[in-house]
Write a structure and sequence with these properties.
The complex is a heterodimer of chains A (579) and B (81).
Chain A: H1 3-10, H2 12-38, H3 41-52, E1 53-58, E2 65-66, E3 72-84, H4 86-91, H5 96-103, H6 107-114, E4 123-126, H7 131-140, E5 145-154, H8 162-165, H9 177-181, H10 183-187, E6 191-197, E7 203-211, E8 219-220, H11 225-241, E9 246-253, E10 258-265, H12 278-281, H13 284-287, H14 297-307, E11 315-317, E12 322-325, E13 328-331, E14 338-340, H15 341-347, H16 350-358, H17 362-371, H18 398-404, H19 414-425, E15 429-430, E16 445-446, H20 450-465, E17 480-490, E18 493-507, E19 514-521, H21 530-548
Parallel strand pairs in A: 2-8
Antiparallel strand pairs in A: 1-6, 2-3, 3-4, 3-5, 6-7, 9-10, 9-19, 11-14, 12-13, 15-16, 17-18, 18-19
Helix pairs in contact in A: 5-7, 11-21, 14-17, 14-20, 15-20, 16-18
Chain B: H1 2-53, H2 56-66
The chains are: A alpha+beta (579), B mainly alpha (81).
Chain lengths: 579, 81
């Protein structure tokens, strides 16, 4: 044998083994792509997608709140917040003093914020920086410290629209007022989409919209910012001048039931989160109940006229100036002797009102109060409205009926009282109070007869012309309204030196366009009567509101309300009949 | 056969080109969306600035004190009709 064949023989098995190995390897290699294509396809696809497919949130920015003329009352705008990655940030401790100077936080404060959360990856250091702070922080370039954008809410109308607009918390959720009531609508809903990103993290393909973004809607209020401002300015100075605890003014448009202005004192600047305290941001005009006192009398008179037993000229004997019901004594300021029904309003006689009420069917009196909106809500879409209190007539005793006639034993909020007067202004139709602009016409229903409402209105002009509310007069306009001075109910009965001064009125009296209620809580500078304290505020607010809203004067400008005889149900005999 | 190969080849190239074109457009759309967001924000800030400069108390204070303006009294008002 040749050495070659020997070697061939000698390595035969070895050669076969090598060939076999290669063959198996080749088969395995051939199998692998098939395996990948068939068996692991889904898994690998999803793995691949994970590396460039991203689900992204599309933020919905919060809608604006606007007044009726589309002036902004609340706007969101982005601002920076500083956050840290604690572990990295702790390494840069030497830079903390500089940072503390910029952010106005002590080094200790920074430490307490960061050290206990050392395990986390994201800790807010300070939210909502001022533009100067965020620039300085960016330039400082401290390790582990970054800025992120967040929306912050601004309220250009600051404290004078605070109670209506409300405010959001630091995370942009509505907490009070319209911000709370319409939170869902304002906020919208963030969308989700699936995108492909390239290695520079740019979106290169929109793969799918998983959820469409619903942008936050704007909410347009019925408030007129100009009237709101005037009302606030006048209320603020009056509350101050009278040393009062609090106060509210509500102005309604009689034709639509829309709130033109709603202000309270004390108030708060919602741009400054640190002084948000309940007694400041509580919307007293809708949350605080009080007894309406004499301001209820027009409704007692309305019930009297509805009964058919009385006309505006029916004489009521109030002599001798006090009147006993069991052990209770109803008193007047002085002995008015003989008063006609209009005179009972003009002098605000408690005796007259009680005597009239006692002669009426309780059910009728109750029905008139109830239909004029007492004992319910104003239906305004603001959170936290209190329910007015009015006992059902089967539970009334004689005394209840007598004191209800002049507004004790029941309670209302300022907005409910203003709404009730709107029925007198509106020839007897009651409608819901609205604060958000809508296209739908308002739903009104009849509460009292047209002739009753007109007669009461005529009597109410006498109150302003000759009666207790002469300070409510506005040059050039006829004004109708009623004062109220109410003893405050403290825990243990009525206080004899704490009052609420109230005035509710309408202008122009013949064809009212605006109704306003003014409430001053505990005036403490000597004067405390509704006619002395609240009526002048009504006049100063309305003087400007009529000018702002272009409401034409119905009396000559030369003198206030000289044409006193608005005849019952007929056109005014005022020298300048305007309509 | 040759024709088929040519067609397949061209369509493959077209596909890649269009894909690329599409991605470029998406990037641009993305950029424009960013711009819009930016402009929206700027608009919000301008509204805010306008509201701040035009705040009633500021205007009133300027009108009364700087410009010496006042609301005409009734004696100074005449009614035209």
């Amino acid at each position: 044998m040749s050495p070659r064949s020997v070697s061939k023989d000698k390595f035969r098995y070895r050669r076969r083994a090598v060939v076999m190995t290669f063959l198996v390897a080749a088969m395995l290699l051939a199998w692998k792509p098939i395996d990948i294509q068939l068996k692991e396809r889904e898994f690998l696809k999803s793995e691949g997608a994970d590396r460039h497919l991203r689900t992204e949130k599309i933020d919905a920015s919060r809608g604006m709140i606007l007044d009726r003329n589309h002036e902004p009352l609340a706007i969101s705008t982005p601002i920076h917040s500083a956050w840290v990655h604690p572990r990295q940030f702790l390494e840069a401790r030497d830079r903390w003093p500089e940072l503390s100077r910029i952010l106005g936080m002590s080094v200790d404060h920074i430490e307490t914020k960061v050290v206990p959360r050392g395990e986390k990856k994201f800790v807010y250091l300070k939210r909502h920086l001022t533009p100067d702070e965020s620039l300085a922080v960016r330039d400082l370039n401290v390790g582990g410290l970054s800025l992120t954008e967040e929306d912050r809410r601004y309220y250009p109308a600051a404290e004078y629209a605070a109670h209506v607009v409300g405010f959001t918390n630091v995370d942009g959720q509505g907490q009070e007022g319209i911000e709370l009531a319409f939170d869902r609508l304002l906020r919208g809903e963030p969308g989700l989409r699936r995108v492909i990103k390239d290695k520079r993290r740019r979106v290169v393909e929109d793969v799918a919209r998983l959820r469409p973004v619903i942008p936050g809607q704007n909410v347009v209020l019925t408030i007129d910012q100009r009237v709101q401002y005037v009302a606030y300015r006048e209320l603020k100075s009056a509350v101050q001048a009278n040393g009062a605890q609090a106060g509210s003014v509500v102005v309604l448009d009689t034709r639509t039931g829309e709130v033109m202005a709603l202000v309270n004192r004390p108030s708060v600047n919602p741009n400054n989160r640190s002084d948000l305290r309940d007694e400041h941001y509580r919307n007293r005009a809708i949350t605080d109940l009080f007894e309406p006192g004499s301001t209820i009398k027009p409704f007692t008179i309305a019930a009297a006229l509805e009964s058919g037993l009385y006309t505006p000229h029916t004489i009521i004997n109030t002599d001798p100036g006090f009147f006993k019901i069991g052990s209770h004594v109803v008193k007047d300021v002085k002995n008015y002797k003989q008063l006609d029904v209009g005179g009972v309003l003009e002098k605000s006689s408690n005796i007259g009102a009680s005597k009239i009420a006692l002669s009426l069917d309780p059910k009728l009196l109750w029905r008139v109060f109830r239909d004029c909106g007492f004992g319910s809500t104003s239906e305004v879409l603001l959170p936290g409205e209190a329910y007015g209190r009015l006992e059902d007539y089967p539970n009334w005793h004689e005394l209840d009926q007598a004191i209800l006639a002049y507004g004790y034993g029941m309670s209302v909020t300022a907005i409910q009282l203003a709404r009730a007067y709107m029925t007198i202004a509106n020839d007897g139709l009651i409608q819901p109070v609205r604060i958000v602009r809508t296209a739908e016409p308002s739903q009104s229903r009849r509460a009292i007869k047209r002739s009753t409402a007109q007669a009461v209105r005529t009597m109410l002009t006498r109150v302003v012309e000759h009666g207790t509310a002469q300070d409510a007069a506005i040059p050039g306009y006829s004004v109708a309204g009623k004062t109220g001075t109410v003893y405050k109910h403290t825990g243990k009965g009525y206080s004899d030196d704490r009052y609420m001064a109230i005035f509710v009125g309408m202008v122009p009296a013949e064809h009212p366009r605006l109704v306003a209620a003014v409430i001053i809580d505990e005036p403490d500078e000597g004067e405390y009567h509704g006619g002395q304290v609240a009526a002048p505020i009504f006049a100063s607010v309305m003087r400007e509101a009529t000018r702002i809203l272009n409401i034409a004067p119905d009396y000559p400008l030369s003198g206030p309300g000289s044409g006193a005889d608005l005849a019952l149900g007929t056109r005014s005999s005022a020298p300048f009949g305007f309509h | 056969m040759l024709l088929m190969v040519a067609i397949v080849f061209t369509s493959a190239v077209e596909l890649v080109m269009h894909r690329n074109e599409g991605r470029k457009l998406v990037t641009e759309l993305q950029k424009l969306r960013g711009d819009r967001k930016h402009l929206d924000r700027e608009w919000g800030q301008l509204l805010l600035e306008q509201a701040t400069w035009g705040a009633h108390n500021r205007i009133e204070e300027a009108a009364r004190n700087k410009l010496g303006m006042s609301i005409p009294s009734i004696a100074d008002t005449r009614e035209l009709r």
